Queue: 3 jobs
Job 1
Amino acid sequence: MRRQVYLETSIVSYLAARPSRSLIMAAHQEVTRQWWERRQRFELYISQLVLNEAAGGDSAAARRRLALVRGMRQLPVTPEVIDLGHALVMDGMLPPKAAIDALHIAVATVHDMDILLTWNCRHLANAELLGELARYLRGKGYEMPVTTTPEELMGD
């Protein structure tokens, strides 16, 4: 069975962006494109949160982002997801400015995704936070998905 991957918005943003002048950003974009070519190895999911974020900003870039996720399976943002995302912020696991990030974690967690794929290393793929988040979620009866970047998910 293929692993289930929840794509956080930064993945489609990197795919749809014009090539960056920053060496690090350009490298992330290239790794993301390479991973995207292998995406058939996974079952990919998004949520309305991803669609909302992808639709923002520059209209041409928004069209490119939305085209990438068109037809992708969508996980519902249920009351349970909203409650868990709210709890992550209220209990200090993430700062209030990261409320959307908390909801991405909640969507992937509540819907039992195997992997949350992101380039957001501040609030999501952050080694300093992941252990604490996993313990917190386990205490609430959930198992946190593996949270990682495309670079770490490249495989052989």
Note: The first strand starts at residue 3 and ends at 7.
Job 2
Amino acid sequence: MSEIKWSEIEDKIARRAFDIAYERETLALIEGVRAKASAIAKLDDLWHLNDILSSKRYEIDGKYDYSHASLIFTFAGLLQEKWINLDELEGINPDKIAKIAALSRMQ
């Protein structure tokens, strides 16, 4: 897919939605880690938590790439995972929102 053009206003809206999703997901991760950390009773539990965190770091670092070329796909995934909703993309071209919504149902 060729790079989709984003206007300055769309870019600001997209960046805000992107940052909101990132904050929501990372806060959820922190809350989950706090719950798991309180259940650590032995060294194997600690190593297991380390494995989970390493995996989540890789997943989050890969998911949150703010590249205009992949934003449609990024937002589709974030929408599907419920880290954002379509209302938070209001102001972005309706064709782009339609693509995001359609892709979120396919993934």
Note: The CA atoms of residues 39 and 45 lie 8 Å apart.
Job 3
Amino acid sequence: MKVKVRLARISDLKNYTNLLQRTYEAAYTQESLGLTKNCFSKKVFNTKNTQDYLKSKLQITDQQKTWLAFVQDEMIGSITISDNKDTCELSGLYIAPEYQGKGIGKRLYSLALEFSGTKNITLDIYQHNKNTISIYKKWGFEIDKNRGSFSRHWPEWPKGLEAKCIYMILRKKR
């Protein structure tokens, strides 16, 4: 399988939206928490609020890079890293479910790691996403106890529905 990686373009929005919608639905649905598939539906991902957010992730600048992975013309992965002066923030590491476990995430992560240089990398993640938390721990991240946790609510979700998130950090030796 030949995987091509390149920087994102605004014209990737439709395929990026589809990739994230599918991966969010697969990774974050947790019926016991009220996070149903409807919370991550195509309808939610195509609202103005979500589309504006996703467009912002496709903006390539000196402070932010998003790389996309493709097999032929199919977008199968993404990663975004932003330089926030003292640290870098990792977001948007998503691999299509059928391509997970094939080293694609690690390949994308290596680009973000290189971009961050000697700066620590932070991220936030849904606390119930145990599989991904374990991958980040394997890559050297630890739960950032100094920052604690927070609750996330998307405007498109039912009123009162929140998902607990935690912060993680990769501390680099300087």
Note: The helical segments are 13-28, 42-45, 48-57, 104-116, 130-138.
